Amino acid sequence: MGFLSHAFLAAAFSLSPFLASAAAFKPNIILIYADDLGMGMLGCYGQEIVKTPNIDRLASQGIMFTRCYSSQYCCPARASLLMGVHDSHSHSYTQTEGALVIMAERQGWPNEKLEEKAAQAAQIKAAEREVFLPELLKKAGYVTGQFGKLEWGFTTWHGELKRHGWDRYAGYMDHQRAHGFYPSFLWKDGKRLPLKGNTHADGGKTPENYSPGATEKRRGNREGKVTYAPDVMLAETLRFMEENRDRPMFIFFSTNLPHGPVDIPPEENTYAGNAAIRQAYDNANGTNRECAEAAEEYASMVDKLDRQVGAIVEQVRRLGLDKRTIIIFSSDNGHELYYRTDKGRGRGLDCHGGVLDGTGELLDVFRGSRGRVGPNTSIANLAGLKWTSHEGGIRVPLIISWPGTLPHGKVCHSLVANYDHMAAFADLAGVRMPEGKDAVSYIDILFGNTTSQRDYVIVDHTVITGDGWKLTQKRNKPFLFQTGKDPEERHNLAETRKDQLEKLQAIYRKEVGSPRKDR
Questions:
Q1: Which of 31, 179, 333, 349 is the most buried (most CB within 10 A)?
Q2: Residues 195-217: tens digit of each pLDDT
Q3: String of DSSP letters for 255-281
Q4: In the chain, how long is the greatest CA-to-CA distance?
Q5: Torsion of the alpha carbons at 115, 192, 205 and 32, rounded to the nearest 10
Q6: What's the predicted TM-score (pTM) here?
Q7: Contact, 133 vs 79, CB < 8 A?
């Protein structure tokens, strides 16, 4: 869409009063990226049990999207975001094995050996000419920092992080290790950052065990679990903001909350004994108290995430950067169940949530809210979970707030994809997009110009159109849904709507069947 020049802003200002403050400077860009967080876990999208006041406040002070799509799991979602391309191109990005940092610690490897092993593990390397999101913003004059689960994994290394354009970083280089919240060290700018009192190479990952007494054993054994890694990553983020307050900043806060297995400091288990959660499990068939207690811990992890969002927003306010900072909140993929013994049932079209009800249907205590995210679309009725191309797996929250610039409390049903952030951020930074990208800027949409809406997006070898059609595939069979009318994806129209099937198949062949442009 071209870059956001002063001329563009001046012209757009005649349509929207909210653009007045944008013309004079490059705004700070803070992207907060939750891990495995479905829309239904947030109060602003209709959640009724878990309270998320800080994230809800972002929505009330900005714009909440209802049709943002991402990938079905961590690695392709993050690669797409950082590269500005959809995840269905072949050989576009590197996907390494996880657990390499765990092995390095257990075998006593020096940093140099780990760096060498990680680079060797990357069998599919991005093209030398590839331009990455932080690299693009760094060239535009931004200081760049990433904090949390670093890159797209499952293992990264210092050389890759610097190649992609990060000035500073702190967090996990191994996404499998990030499943534990008490690692003995994190990485900070190429060096190991020890975490006081932690002794676990695997981060102290807790077992997903729901047998009688399992929860008490998990909570009671705190040996080697002293420093909660998300606290350290937040502190590093706030420090980076303080140190760079006078420069345009791009911050990627890619936390591992609330990814499971569930683990929260006992003193922060704010939902322990929550009556609503207990009642929901008491009403469900085939569910035990251990699952209810795990659900309480999971809710507390979401609460922890919300409070960390609040801390970042408060730091922006404290530094006097409110009017100069745009905050984007989203997630890498849809919801996952870390508090059930039968979560595997949530992978198919027979699942529409997560807790068993009286009919044997899988419904989720948290996703079972009555909130509405769009016309005729209940959060509780989105099909599937993480690891699937169903709506519950690839549809994610997206909230954008910029006080004094964007309208407040707006709900937007326009179609966007997670890889569109690159084009939008390029607009904000005043730089042109590189060739060969799939990203389309949503900046015009933020300011009410709906003529630039997307016709379709591609995620996880699935085509989703602006008018609500969706083509995906399961067991080599096409599935065609009209999600606006059928958010539960119960009715496959591939046989009865050949016209739409052929139309979407043609789009798919065009977007996926040929190499990326300029690559």
A1: 333
A2: 999 999 999 999 888 888 887 87
A3: --TT-SS----GGG-TTTT-HHHHHHH
A4: 66
A5: -90
A6: 0.91
A7: no
